[in-house]
Amino acid sequence: MPHLQSTEIAGRIEDLYDAPLADLQAHAQGQPPGMLSALLGMHHDLTVAECSIAFHRDRLTQLVHPEQQIGVHEVSHVLDCARRLTEAVAVRDSQITTVLAVLQSLGRVAPPAPTPAAAPPAPAPPVPATSAVASR
């Protein structure tokens, strides 16, 4: 079985968000659209393209099998299958380029370093009491 890019992309998304993909998908459904939902959408499109490639590659292999005769009717199927395979490869390549560029631009931000406990503020200097009688 060939190495699927969607598997690698899923791992990078999981590493970035430090959670399994299924948990991230569940979390994103309850949130407004953002970077996570965009990454998950690109991953989904990449997965669909890879499945389409596998399907059309297998179908094309069946159509041009050496024991199979290719007549006028089968030629249109071969051409259509080859066209669909080409489209699926183009979609996959486009999705990989885009999602890798986005992932490369993102990085896990280290949590801020804890600040040392601040000293309690110094008490304000006492205000001298004012006399009720004005002095001259």
Characterize the overall form: rod-shaped
Could you give the count of β-strands? 0
Question: What sequence of helices (H) and strands (E) makes up the elements?
Answer: HHHH
Taking the sheet with the most strands, its summary is: none
Straight-line N-to-C gap: 101 Å
List the total number of helices. Answer: 4
pLDDT averaged residue by residue: 84
What would you note in describing this structure?
- This protein is mostly helical.
- The protein is 62% helix and 0% strand.
- It has 4 helices and no strands.
- It has helices at residues 5-17, 21-29, 35-63, 72-105.
- It is rod-shaped.
- The mean pLDDT is 84.
Topology (elements, then pairings):
Elements: H1 5-17, H2 21-29, H3 35-63, H4 72-105
Brief overview, please?
With 136 residues, the protein is mainly alpha-helical. It has helices at residues 5-17, 21-29, 35-63, 72-105. It is rod-shaped.
